[in-house]
Design a protein that fits this description.
The chain is an alpha/beta fold. The chain folds into two domains: 142 residues, Rossmann fold (3-Layer(aba) Sandwich); 141 residues, Isopropylmalate Dehydrogenase. The protein contains eleven helices and eleven strands. The strands form two sheets. Strands 8-7-9-6-5-10 form a six-stranded mixed β-sheet, sandwiched between helices. Strands 3-2-1-4-11 form a five-stranded parallel β-sheet, sandwiched between helices.
Amino acid sequence: MSKGFDELISKVTTKKKVAVAVAQDAPVLEAVNAAKERNIADAILVGDVDKIQEIANELKIDLSSYEVIDVKDSYEAALTAVKLVHEGKADMYMKGLIDTKSFLKSVLDKEVGLRTGKPLSHVCVFEIKGIDHLLFLADVAFMPYPTLEDKKVIIDYTVDVARACGVECPKVAPLAAVEVVNPKMPVTVEAAELTRMNEEGEIKNCIVDGPLSLDLAIDPEAAKHKGAENRKIVGDADILLFPDIHAGNLLYKAIVRLSDFKNGCILTGTKAPVILTSRSDSFETKVNSIALAAVVAQELNR
C-alpha cells in the first residue's frame, strides 16, 4: 500500500510511454521531462515541432531522445496522439496546449479514441500531511449530479485505481452531511443502497460504508467521540465518494488552498489512463498525475 507519491512512483517497474497532444506547452514539457528523468515515463510529443523545439531550448531540454511528431493543427495533433494510445504504441494520453472540450472530443472519437461505452469520471489522489495513507476523491470534476448507477460506476473505477496503487481492499465512504439514513435526504438513502449493493456482492473488491459524514470518514478520533466504533469505516476511509460535483470540488479546492499536500489526477472510464491537468496545476501535480497514470497503466497491462 502506497502511503505517498514517492512510494507510488517506486511502484512503476517498467517505464511507460505517454502520448502528449499539442505538446508545445512549457509546463507540460517540463513535467514529461521530469517524468522521464525519474524513470516514470517516456513521451511521444505531438504538435508544432518548431514551437516544441523553441520551448525545449528555453527550458534546456534535449529533444534528441524524444519521438516528436510534427502536426500543426491542434485537433489533428490530438487525434494523432490519441491514436498512438488506441493502437497500443503508447500507454497513456496527456493534454497539452489544447482546450479541454477538443481534448475530450479526441478521447471519445469513435475511430481512434479511448471510449469504452461507459461514462467518464475523474479521480484525484491526495497525499495530505496528517493522514497516513493516500486519499482517493471521486468525482470532483466531471459528473455534475451522479445517479445511483453512476455512483456505482464511480466506485468501480476508483476501486480499480486504488488497487493499482496497492490498496488491496479499499474502504469507500459515500459522504453526506449526516451518518444516518434520512428519507428527506436522498443522498443518505443512496449511500445506504450502495452499502447494501456492496454487502450483496454487486459492488466488489472493496468495503462500502455509508452514509458517512466527512469527519467519521477520515478522523478516527471523531469516530471514537461519536461512538461509531461499530462502523466498518472508523476514520480510515481510502475513497471519498461525493454526492455531487459541488461537494467534491469544494473539498478539493479547500485541500489545495488550506493544507500541506501532494496530488495527482486522471480520467477514468477510458481504455487507457488519460491525464487531464489544468494550466493552474503545479509542476509537481502534473508529474504526480503522470506517475498515477503509469501505475494504473502498469496494472492494466498485466
